[in-house]
Amino acid sequence: MLRDLHELTAPEVAAQLDISVDAVKSRLHRARMQVRTVLMASGYWFNGTAAEPHGPARQQRD
Fold it and tell me: Is 52 helix (H, G, I), strand (E, B) or coil?
């Protein structure tokens, strides 16, 4: 959240959390991969690009 929502730099996040910049980068990578996995499983991500939702969550149009 500090990096993406509050737009802090990696060094600023590291200082706030009292961890190394490499740890910040590693945590961001892992978190983004988890988000990607959830989006792929729900049909909102396909081969690294955004996709239209499909499956039961998609509403039918008239």
Answer: coil
Dig out the tokens for 2 from the structure: 């500090």
Query: Number of C-alpha atoms within 13 angstroms, CB side, residue 30?
Result: 6
The values of phi and psi at residue 18, to 5°, are 55, 50
Residue-wise pLDDT for 28-44, tens only, equals 999 999 998 998 888 88
d(CA 20, CA 5): 20
**DSSP type of residue 10:** H
pLDDT interval class at 62 (50, 70, 90): very low
